[in-house]
Amino acid sequence: MAIRMPRIIKKSSSAGDVPKGHFAVYVGENQKKRFVIPISFLSQPLFQDLLSQAEEEFGFDHPMGGVTIPCSEDVFVDLTSRLNRI
Q1: What family does this belong to (predicted)?
Q2: 9, 22 in Cβ contact below 8 A?
Q3: DSSP 15
Q4: Mean pLDDT per 10-residue run, the chain (86 residues)?
Q5: What is the DSSP secondary-structure string of 16-84?
Q6: What are phi and psi of 9, to 5 degrees?
Q7: Among 20, 28, 55, 74, which has the minimal tally of Cβ within 10 Å of its Cβ?
Q8: What's the rounded Cα separation, in Å, for the pair 18 and 23?
Q9: Which 3 state secondary structure label does DSSP give 4?
Q10: What is the pTM of this model?
């Protein structure tokens, strides 16, 4: 069963593959997965809540090279799919 996520681009390679208007985040509790998402998510209250949690947990030190989101991959995919509908 395939899940279509038109506005999220799941990537696992280098920083050079981030398209204009997008940015990379790392998500996961144990193993971090890299997602490239639209900058427009930054203005959404649901995503801002995630960023606040990231700030509380990690401060501004993100050793992966992108913002690290402290939630499970399933929660992140669910939240971003809701943001796609807004």
Answers
A1: Belongs to the ARG7 family.
A2: yes
A3: G
A4: 49 67 87 90 91 80 73 90 81
A5: GG--TTEEEEEE-SSS-EEEEEEGGGGGSHHHHHHHHHHHHHHTT--TTSSEEE-S-HHHHHHHHHHHH
A6: -115, 115
A7: 20
A8: 6
A9: coil
A10: 0.73
